[in-house]
Every structure is written in C-alpha cells, then in structure tokens.
Amino acid sequence: MFKGRIIEASEAMTVFGLVRLCYPDIRIDAWRHHLAGLGTGKRRRSGCVVVNDRRGYVHAACLYRIAPDPRAGRRLELSYLSKAELPASTAPDTLFDFVHDLARGEGCSTILIEDTSGRVAPERLATWVDIDRALAAHDFRPGSVGFVKMVAAAS
After folding, report:
1. CATH class of 2-150
2. What is the Cα–Cα distance from 110 to 128, expressed in whole angstroms?
3. What's the whole-model pTM score?
4. C-alpha–C-alpha distance, residues 144 and 63, integer Å
5. Do residues 99 and 76 make contact, with C-beta atoms less than 8 angstroms apart?
6. Domain residues of the chain, as ranges?
7. pLDDT by residue (tens digit) across 102-145?
8. Are 11 and 19 in contact (CB under 8 A)?
C-alpha cells in the first residue's frame, strides 16, 4: 500500500503540507530553498524521503544526510520526521524500512534520528501516537541526540 522514495527538489510542494502540519513555523520559501540545495553534486549525500500511498498522497517524510562518523565510518542522519496521524497506518514502517535499506546501500553503520524538539517545538517526536512502538520495532534506541540504530553491512 505504501512506497518510500527520495524526491527531487522540484517536488518540494508534494510534501510541504505534511511538513507544515508537523512544523508550522517552516515557511514555504525556506522549504523550497532548502530542498533545492539538497542532493547536489556528483553523489547524492542528502535529500528528502517520502512515503506515498497508491494515490500519490504523502503519509510520512523526513530529511536525510549521509555524514562521517568518527566512531563508525558513515552514518545516515534523519531530521524533521513528519507523519500523518492515521489509525493503524503502516507508513512509519515503510519509512523506517526504506531508510534502513538506504543506509545499508550507502555503507552507513548507523542511523541517527535527530531530536529536533529543542529547535522546533517541545516533545515533537512524542506527538506521534505510535512513535515508541514504531522506533522499537525497527531497533532504534534512545541516544544522546535522538534515536540511534546499528546497521549491519550488506551481505
């Protein structure tokens, strides 16, 4: 029912409604400008992941970037996690599975979900009704700056 994918900057408006719902202080021009700067260069090192249903509606999204990690080589960092609140939705599962595969494909040893609550709104991640279940089901654990997951190397 759901499919994860990386969107191009030209598709910024397809996810803006969901992002604005979760982060009301983000301005449309700032969002467009930020996405336009992601994923440039020879190798895509950052971008926006979305989870769509068959009709094309976005149910979950986040920004990602691949960063050096002095302890473990490379890590995939997620921020501005956004999700529509629909009962029994599997969109978070699709999102977390997609970013896990992305991290493995990029040779990352960890995934870090940045806790943006300090900059945006108090307890932002806690507003997800099922965040504890979704994170635990995908092996994310609380860390010093958010939630962290180890990624096994591709076989």
Report:
1. alpha beta
2. 23
3. 0.75
4. 20
5. yes
6. 2-150
7. 999 999 998 888 755 443 334 444 445 455 566 666 666 655 45
8. no
